[in-house]
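> forwarded from #structure-qc
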């Protein structure tokens, strides 16, 4: 019976009473079994030369990944994940913690994509697929890679399945809003554009999307505003106007209602840490 092994050699210590230090450093190195292939031996001395444990950050644009999910672009989403893991593998002594947290962030983005559509996330992650438990059980970067791709693929297929079941008129209206959310549009103007009764369209939208038309429009605008807050240095007034809000105070109010915090705080919390 064949089995794989990963061994670590701790730091050299001069005194017997410091043996625990060597053991501790070896334990630290064992975390790297997630990154490196099996059947190798790593040493603390070698790792120290490469400044292991330093907080190296692979620059990953999670907003772009979220956009792939929302647009149901499976090919681009898979390529994004592959490129991210390739980048992590290429960096010597990349912290396993950073790799794991970035991978879990991708899974959270998948969950958020479903939440934004008021979809049930239970089918995406079963009871045994708890984020943190799965992270602890993952034995290799290949396994982690496959798990993230599986979650992203299931997310997109769930979104596609939902949209295929929606009334054709609501699908057309949703697509219209997705493209022209920054314009001065409302339920009345949309109803006129599609030559239907506004009250009828409003009720149909609620029935099919489980939310009001105005809620859907605001959600689209706020999602775009969040991207701009993280990726640009535009003033809040400029961002508000870019996503369809003439009044910045109203934009601030809608943003706070949707996210729990004001735009300025969101930018401070996310811009510097956006990967």
């Amino acid at each position: 019976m064949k089995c794989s092994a990963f061994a670590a050699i701790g730091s050299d210590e001069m005194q017997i009473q410091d043996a625990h230090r060597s053991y501790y450093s070896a334990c630290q190195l064992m975390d790297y079994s997630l990154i490196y292939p099996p059947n190798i031996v790593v040493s603390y001395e070698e790792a120290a030369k490469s400044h292991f444990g330093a907080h190296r950050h692979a620059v990953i644009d999670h907003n772009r990944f979220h956009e792939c999910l929302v647009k149901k672009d499976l090919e681009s989403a898979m390529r994004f994940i592959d490129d991210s893991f390739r980048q992590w593998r290429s960096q010597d002594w990349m912290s396993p913690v950073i790799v794991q947290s970035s991978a879990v962030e991708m899974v959270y983005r998948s969950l958020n994509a479903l939440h934004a559509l008021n979809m049930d996330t239970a089918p995406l992650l079963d009871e045994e697929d708890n984020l943190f438990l799965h992270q602890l059980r993952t034995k290799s970067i290949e396994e982690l890679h496959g798990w993230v791709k599986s979650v992203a693929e299931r997310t997109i297929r769930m979104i596609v399945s939902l949209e295929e079941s929606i009334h054709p008129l609501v699908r057309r209206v949703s697509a219209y809003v997705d493209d022209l959310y920054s314009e001065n549009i409302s339920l009345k103007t949309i109803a006129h554009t599609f030559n239907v009764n506004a009250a009828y369209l409003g009720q149909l939208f609620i029935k099919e999307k489980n939310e009001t038309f105005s809620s859907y429009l605001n959600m689209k605008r706020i999602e775009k505003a969040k991207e701009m807050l993280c990726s640009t240095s535009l003033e809040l007034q400029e961002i508000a106007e870019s996503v369809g809000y003439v009044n910045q105070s109203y934009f601030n109010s809608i943003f706070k209602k949707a996210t729990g915090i004001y735009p300025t705080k969101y930018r401070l919390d996310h811009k510097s840490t956006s990967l």
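QC bot note: The mean pLDDT is 80. The beta strands are 6-9, 40-43.
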